[in-house]
Amino acid sequence: MKKSLIQRIGLGTFGVIVALLFVFPTYWMVTSSLKTPGQVLSPEYDLVPLSVTFENFVTALTKPGFTTYLTNSLIVTIGAVLCSLVAGVLAAVTLSRMRFRGRKGFLMLVLVAQLAPFEALLIPMYLLMRDAGLLNQLPSLLLVYFAATLPFTCWMLYGFVNGIPYDLEEAAMIDGCSRAGAFRRVTLPLLAPGLVTTSVFSFITAWNEFLFAFVFMRDQSKQTLPVWLSSFRTAFSVDWGGIMAASVIYAVPALVFFILVQRKLVSNLTAGAVKG
Length: 276
Description:
Largest sheet: none
Oligomer: single chain
Radius of gyration: 23 Å
Shape: globular
Distance between the termini: 39 Å
C-alpha cells in the first residue's frame, strides 16, 4: 500500500511539473502583455504583475491592417481545412473500401509526402505560382495550405475509416440504402471524431504558417496574422509588450476553434457509448 501510494504521489508530482513547464510560456506571454514597456524590460521580472495595463492590447488592435490580416487568415485557414477534409474523406474511403493495384504503394507515398519538410517546396511552388499568375492572391495561399495538410488528413482518416466495420454499410444496403446512402447515414456519423481530430491539426498548421504567407503575399492587404506579428519588430527596436499582446490575440481564434471541436468530439464519443 505504501509503495503504491508513493508511486502515485511521484507520478502526480511529475505530471504537475511537466504541466507547469508547458503552461509557463503561455503564462509569461499573458502577464507580459499586461505590463508597461518599462516593466517588460526590467531585469527583475515579476511573476505576478503588480500593476496591469491594457495599453499593449489597444496598440495591437489599432495597428493598421489588423482586421484585414485577421480576415485573410480566417479565409485561407477555414478554406484549407474544409478542402482537406472533403478530399481526405474521399481518398480515405477509396483506399479503405476498394481494392486496386498500387493501393499500398500509394499509401506509402502519402506517408512519405507527410514526412518530407514542406519548406523544401518553397522555391518550386513559388515558381509555379509565379508562372500561373497566382502570387499575391489568397487562393494560391489556400492551395498551399491545402497541399500541406492533405497528406496527414488522408492518412489519419484512412485509419479511422478502417476502424469502422464494413458490415455496417452492408447491413444498411441490405435494408435498402444505396452505397452512397449507407456511407452518409452510417459511416460518416461514426467518422465524426476522426474529422474533428484531423480538422484541429489542419487548422493549427494553416493558422500558424508564416513562411509561405510572407513570400507569396508581398501585398500587405493580402498577408495573414503571422506576418502581422512580425511587424512589431523593426530594425531599431522591438515592441515586446505589443508582441505579447498580439500573440494573445492571435491565439484566441485557435483556442476558440479547439474548444468548439473538443465539445463536439466529446459529445460524439459519448453518444456512441450510450446508444444500444
